[in-house]
Amino acid sequence: MSITDEGEYGKKQIDTLEMIWGEGYLSPGGASEIDLILNDKSLKNKKILDIGCGCGSAAFHFIKNHSPNYVLGVDVEEMVIKRANALKSNLIEKKKVDFKVIQPGELPFDDLSFDVIFSKDTFLHILDKERLVEDLYRVLKPGGFLCVGDWMRIDDNAPSKLMQEYIKLEGLSMNMCSLQRYGNALNNAGFKNIKLTDRNKWYLNLAKKELNDLSTIYKEKLIKILGIEDAEGTINIWKKMIEVLEKGEHRPGHFYAEKRT
């Protein structure tokens, strides 16, 4: 089973993930993980593209804490953009951020449009990583930089039976690749100062805490959101995810790169 409903991220999915990870967050780690992905780079006065912005958590964090000039958040899921715009109403500097739905495929932006591209746990849904990275290079300004967190696998061989079982339970399009494949794609596209970071151990420990919370303090609310059957199914997803994390096949990570001037 999966907890998807309207599209890959509908109301049940959003409510469940926000319960686990916080308001506006559809992936783990919160603001501290976002800051790690930024690799100590300043966003001051930068024009930022947030790809797969979800409900806007990263964009709001940037506006409140990193002084960018402007953030554009884009996503293919209409429901999450609706939620992001609802949360935007609480923001003081509303004019500094916009959210819009885009279609899958080539980014609908002119060449050299952004100083920074950020994305978190989104690129796993995209099949052609090499074409994606080339498109990121195209829309970045010279000297601009790319900061990404994503869910990956240990290698690019066929997924193991255990990983296939996990992906089936998730019910999402999960085209995970290795961190090294991203590194090769970045290098071939022309990026420099490439940095690759494995985050498997971090998320393994956090996922175990999430499973405990889902089974205890969040259990009643989870049942209220999903019903008993889907609540138990969600707990089973976490159990299976922990298995592939422990095996080392599921390896969340970060990558950073700069466009040549």
Question: Can you characterise this structure?
Answer:
By secondary structure, the chain is of the alpha/beta class. The chain has one domain (11-258): Vaccinia Virus protein VP39 (Rossmann fold), CATH 3.40.50. Helix content is 44%, strand content 18%. It contains 10 helices and 7 strands. It has helices at 11-21, 30-37, 57-65, 78-88, 129-139, 161-170, 179-189, 200-215, 219-226, 228-247; strands at 47-51, 70-75, 97-101, 114-120, 140-150, 192-198, 253-258. Strands 3-2-1-4-5-7-6 form a 7-stranded mixed beta sheet, sandwiched between helices. Helix 6 (161-170) runs antiparallel to helix 10 (228-247) and helix 9 (219-226) packs across helix 10. It is globular, with a radius of gyration of 18 Å.
**Total count of helical runs of at least 4 residues:** 10
CATH architecture: 3-Layer(aba) Sandwich
Number of domain units: 1
**CATH level 4 superfamily:** Vaccinia Virus protein VP39
- What would you report as the Rg, rounded to the nearest angstrom? 18 Å
Summarize the amount of helix as a percent range. 40-55%
Extract low-pLDDT stretches. none
Structural class: alpha/beta
- Number of E-type strands: 7
CATH fold group:
Rossmann fold
- Strand coverage percent: 15-25%
Across the major sheet, the strand order is 3-2-1-4-5-7-6
Q: Return the average pLDDT rounded to an integer.
A: 96
In CATH's first tier, which class applies?
A: Alpha Beta
Query: What's the helix-strand series?
Result: HHEHEHEEHEHHEHHHE
Large-scale geometry: globular
